[in-house]
Input
Amino acid sequence: MRTPGLRGRLAADTELGAGNMLARVLAHGADPDGPALTFDTAVDGHPAQAPLTLGQLDERVAARAAWLHEQGVRPRDPVAVWATAAADMVLSFLALARLGAIPALMNGKLRPEIAAEYIRRLRGVGVLADDAHTALLAGHELGVPVLGTPARAGTGDPAAAPPHYRHHPDDPIVITHTSGTTGVPKAVLHSHASLFAATRHLLSMPQAQGTSRILNALPAPHTATVLMVNQALGNRAQMFLLSEQGGERVLDAIQRWRPDGVFGFSVTWAELARFDLSGYDLDSVRLWFNTGDCSHEPHIRRLVAVGWHDTVTRDGVARVPGSLFIDGLGSSEMGHSMFHITHRADTDRYGRCIGRPYQFTKVAVLDADGEPVPVGEVGFLGVDSPSLFRGYWNDSATTYRFRQRGWYLTGDLVRADAEGRYYHLDRAVDSVDAGDGRRFFTALSEERILATCPDATDCTVVIVAEAGAVVTDVLLELAAGADEAEDRTERVRAALGAVVGATLRRVVPVRSDDIPVTVTGKVRKVALRERYLTEAAS
Output
């Protein structure tokens, strides 16, 4: 149920931020019986997949806030949350934010020893962990007590909850973490204002199609899910949150729940590309929204071929076959995607184009000294935005290592064209500097291979520089029924182009399980390079 003028009032509300959206939506007159969130697990006896109303959500959050307050949790107290269910993550975030505490949301797939070290480094006051993760922490020195499970927190008395903490814009509101490609993840801190800056901008604009009934296929502990929960509450949208983001799980949820928008990471779209989508009922989808790493063209083309979207014609708004795909580039640190580009079935601007920056963002392409490079040249991406994170928790050295001349350095290599569009070539750590001004890009190479190899659903390029020579290996994940014995070397070499193609050593068919990934599904290319260097040495 819509509340007329609500989005405009929220956008103008100076007290509103990432820590009090639920309370402020109700304060502005939203119907407590209106829609809120739906979880894929039971919540305090409320059945799985049964929507919680706004009032029910507020009551469940108040119950947890009361229980946590009884355990001694107070404003600005960091509390780690380690669980699997999306409901545990989201309700714990909302309850801790209500108290003014700082939820530190942890991906349930972290290895126990990594999770324990991460908790120690937080130097917080306690841990909320579900039964499975409580068992995994047994025997590890955490430095803080395990307070209980998120489910037990739900047994609190809502009427006993203290008044909602009044946030200052600079108050810390949540700690999430990076993918942890090289060990213990970095703890990313956002404030009440920073994690709301993009949402405030979007609330001031007409609501986009495909954002009324949302399937959230983003990892529940990620910054992106916190953003999406606030956006859904502000838009008075319905949202179904998945605890697991595998391709089959997402397709099943689309068919059953009939969303008009699906939000996720590029790894999920790559998984969907392994399925014959014509065998699924995806007609409800108008919009796919990607954040994190930008997506590959073949994966996008498969998705925009299904569903539908509205377009404006001379005769008014018309329904057109084929959905929209909004691509971009984001990270936990950015607080929201910094770029956006919309793809349809009839668009062809790919080649890792991430589009133009959002209005709330300033970007630059920089050399190693932090100076802008000419248009068309490759450089390091620097961004400046009110949505940027406040720093890495308890790690000022790393925080400032990624700052230069007023820019936050994202670790990405990009170029801009004369029309103000940006193209993502690679993560800097995944590229290889071959000297003499030559640099080899793994992500751009993967894009070219997938665009010319229709029997490959995904690929990983490993480029290794050793003893003055560069060697490239290509790991291909093939479609069902594809001939694994076929020699694709020359086809791949041609796709790579003359320079990179000359370094090609081998093309290897692999299974997805053969590729080491982080807890959010990113390929650990550094680990692959180390593996290949070790093999070469032996």
Remarks:
- The chain has a mean pLDDT of 94.
- Residues 54-70 form the longest helix (17 residues).
- The two ends are 65 Å apart (CA to CA).
